[in-house]
From TrEMBL:
Organism of derivation: Pseudomonas mangiferae
Keyword annotations of the record: Cell membrane, Membrane, Transmembrane, Transmembrane helix, Transport
Taxonomy of the source species: Bacteria, Pseudomonadati, Pseudomonadota, Gammaproteobacteria, Pseudomonadales
Keyword Signal recorded: no
Name the UniProt record assigns to this protein: Purine permease
Assigned protein family: Belongs to the nucleobase:cation symporter-2 (NCS2) (TC 2.A.40) family.
TM spans (from-to): 20-45, 57-78, 110-130, 137-158, 170-190, 197-219, 239-261, 324-346, 352-373, 385-407, 413-433
Amino acid sequence: MPQPSDRSAAPPLPERCPSLLHLLLVGFQHVLLMYGGAVAVPLIIGQAAHLSREETAFLINADLLVAGLATLVQSLGIGPLGIRMPIMMGASFAAVGSMVAMAGMPGVGLQGIFGATIAAGFFGMLIAPFMCRITRFFPPLVTGTAITAIGLTLFPVAVNWAGGGSGTPAFGALHHLALAALVLITILLVNRFLRGFWVNVAVLVGMALGYGMAGLLGMVDLSGLDAAPWVRVVEPLHFGLPTFSLAPVLSMCLVVVIIFVESSGMFLALGSITERPVSARDLRRGLLCDAGASFVAGFFNTFTHSSFAQNIGLVQMTGVRSRFVTVVAGLLLVALSLLPKAAYLVASIPPAVLGGAGIAMFGMVAATGIRILQEADIGDRRNQLLVAVSLGVGMAPVVRPDFLAHLPHWLEPITHSGIALATLSAMALNLLFNIFAEKGRATPCGAHSEG
């Protein structure tokens, strides 16, 4: 097995290969941990675009395929791509708000989302070598605000699901709310009373129990499952040629920059966990893989991809720090992408089940943003104002979608995205309050020296 040229007498931890059984077990655990998050994005977009279950199942398979291939490239390293560390890749939540807004816009839809994803991936490949300079504009104060906004602006999606989904005649009926509550309570109880592996798959446990209960109540419609093939290869451009519009492209490019900042922090953290310091070259390779995955994803009917933070936590928890574990996990994802019946079952999950899980998942995204904000100087009044105003601006289109309706229509993917508005506001106010401030304030509050 080839080793890096700078290795010591003992192979670095990411280069050590456990036994085959160990690889399979831990690799499968990585898949279980990220599977809920991986399929959540196509489920959200499928519902926002009013796709049939068959088409939503196709989106899920496409997402799993790109996630598996991107994981293999990130873990193995191919050409200039891949950080060669135990990284799992999947569709990023950071773009969900913008894509939900695009899905319902005339002239944009899925083709516009895929076009924006392709353009943003290409943009990401262009800026990846310069991210060390760009990250100073995205200290924890800005990224924490942006990620908090992601969670907050997604809560209406979770609440809509919990009530039974948009267009449901019995929206808010007791059986929908009870089912959502069952899923949420299960997730909370697993986290309270169980440990280790079970905590990491708490969302899957809650959704599985909710799905089973929904089946007993006759809320699961599996008509058409028998007609779905057992094996199907995901073909590119299934929904037609991508389209490119300025505002969707700009909105998604902004998302890619946010993903880069978040991924940079995760790569540095993983370097500490695996005892292999991450160099500027490693960082560039990892970010290029993130951007390349997004570029390819647009052609293969899926969305912007990034490294999954929860799997980095699993590396630390299990102590298995070999990149070959995630190679196995990537192969498992590719295999799952070939099974339409499995994706069809996922696509048949009732909205109420997704709502219970969504409240927990989207809340955790917001909580992650709050945790990042703790690294900034929130005691500073100006920084408090930055967070307050940016979150307020970001919530405006969530509270009143028509608030900015009189602005030019080509701006709608930005003006309808609370995430884009919150991020732009945080960037601008950080420039005003910190970067362009008096010389006495040497660096932006909370800025990382390793950026």
